[in-house]
């Protein structure tokens, strides 16, 4: 009973600390809100419509067909020196990019010659120019497909006319030319069956994902939630250790031999904080129209993320002299953990030594857990439990070291 009272006393102390020190509270709530909102509402360029200026020098029906796209608003400019006007408007940010359709655009395509489109853009804005390139290529692919289909259709119609004409004169061909006529007939048939797409793209590659495309919408939280928890809980848990040390609380804990109870109470406290963070992040994703099948497995995710991050933060706190160093240490260690977690680079392409570090990276376990539970509602392997036990033993050992508190 005494141990239980101690346990809840430690837990109450940490909740009071968050209430008393407002910056803890703002940090705990602010980071999840800001990062989740950024990810959902500001880092999603799919719904953005580009504004394009157009110099249509051909003014044909085919050139007008170029100017039909779902994600691009086209404005035709009829002034003289149209190309220079496009460049000025791009510099002044009146339009995002420009398109120049040259004369004889339709005529060259009808004559089966390669035609040309010029895209003008601001190459000093690298990220935005990449977005323009992606959207223009996507829309032009659809237009090219329509052109190729139309060419196929016209070609088959022309060959059908030739076949009918040939059938009229076929019976009047001299016997000495019968073999050549047969070859001509076969070649004509082959040409009719030839697909112009084969000339441009002889091998067609299709990509078939294992899972349905909708799963990509749900995948954002798989990375956002562990990263948010990592940054905030590392700082808060490490600072809480520093605070207890400065007030002599750790000395009393050690002298009363309640170190195990102290650590367990702290772990539970930060798991509760992680649970609140998870609800905040999940609510923002729900508000953005993304639905998840909730189950008790989500509690396992919260438990794992909370335990791994707070124990890592405890170690940072025990090894730091003051709050400033603990915060700096937490931020410094967060970035390398993200680099070797598979967020930015595929783990398979990294050097072997980095792949071994991946196996002991708390964040990689959290992302793997998030993917299994959030996307597939499946309980993953219990490897994270072994890492948690290791981190707990290290924390308990550091707690018992005398010289850290002298």
Straight-line N-to-C gap: 31 Å
* Low-confidence spans: none
Overall pLDDT confidence: 77
What order do the SSEs take from the amino end to the carboxyl end, as H and E?
Answer: HHEHEHEHEHHHHHHHHHHHH
Number of distinct beta strands: 4
The coarse silhouette is elongated
Output the keywords.
406 residues; mainly alpha; abc type-2 transporter like fold; 2 domains; 4-stranded mixed β-sheet; 4 strands
Question: In words, what does this structure look like?
Answer:
The protein is 67% helix and 5% strand. The chain is mainly alpha-helical. The protein has a four-stranded mixed beta sheet, covered by helices on one side. Strand 1, helix 3 and strand 2 form a beta-alpha-beta unit. It is elongated and about 115 Å long. The two termini are 31 Å apart.
Concise account of the structure shown:
The protein is mainly alpha-helical and 406 residues long.
SSE arrangement:
Blueprint: H1 2-20, H2 22-42, E1 50-56, H3 61-66, E2 72-76, H4 82-91, E3 97-101, H5 105-110, E4 118-120, H6 126-169, H7 178-193, H8 196-200, H9 215-218, H10 220-246, H11 249-255, H12 259-287, H13 297-319, H14 323-339, H15 352-358, H16 362-376, H17 383-400
Helix pairs in contact: 1-2, 1-12, 2-10, 2-12, 6-7, 10-12, 10-13, 10-14, 10-16, 12-13, 13-14, 13-16, 13-17
